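for the writeup, i need someone to sanity check this before i put it in the appendix. the sequnce is what the collaborator sent (i think, or maybe the updated version? ugh). structure was predicted straight from it, no edits. if anything looks off just tell me and ill rerun, i have time this weekend
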Amino acid sequence: MDIGQHVVQQGSGEPIVLVHGSYATTSTWKKMVERLSQTHHCIAIKLPGHGGMPDPTDFASPSIETELAVIEAAVRQFTDQPIHLVGHSYGGVVALAQALKGSVPVSRLTLFEPVATWVLDVVEDEAMQAELAAFLGRYRRDAAAGQPHVCGQVIDFWGGGDHFAALPAHIQDAMGTMVANNLRHWDICTVPRHSRADLAALNIPTHLICGTRSNAVARAIVDHLHAELPHSQRTDIEGASHALVTSHPEACLAALLDERLLRAA
């Protein structure tokens, strides 16, 4: 693997590794990195199957280790310091898995609406499990039938509204090519690999950030992680939904740079 193709770097200083979500690219972080790179070494990861990267080879048996291998290689090659690890949506799932694995030094963890739906199973949140199952059953069925712009169902589900229709046509079409990768992400997100005990043992300052207008499932995941992770704080971005890192970059940047967790560590 040529790890250089999987990263976009900018700035110098404390290393921050940023992991984008499904149906997205490193442009997710563009507005935030413009400011962050003035004082930090920003290392934005291109996930497999996104941003021009080759598709993963594990569709038959999806494993998050595919994504973790990219992060591990990037950290080894581009920094010798503990990283501030940041993830949005599926990128938050990856970032949390990386922190739980403990294979790279992480000083701080920031998760913008991680769609770690496996947490709902671990804490036995039956109401949110049922809501998720109803959506996912419909989405999988429509994807298998080749329904045009089926990707919009995911965007609108997590966003808590009719967001896909407002996107430019070229972005809608680009997302339409990523359905197989997104289904793979769902396969990973919905299978628990960790226990409540694992979450309770995570000794990393963690900041959980969500929008006040996001889907109830997304907010429930943040609620549960905040309750289970021993060194966590939570911030709600007023008026934001799941695309908060692009729609509310200033508020997200302020939350990202919050020093309270660093002082408490």
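The chain has 13 helices and seven strands. Confidence is low (pLDDT under 50) at residues 261-265.
thx in advance!!
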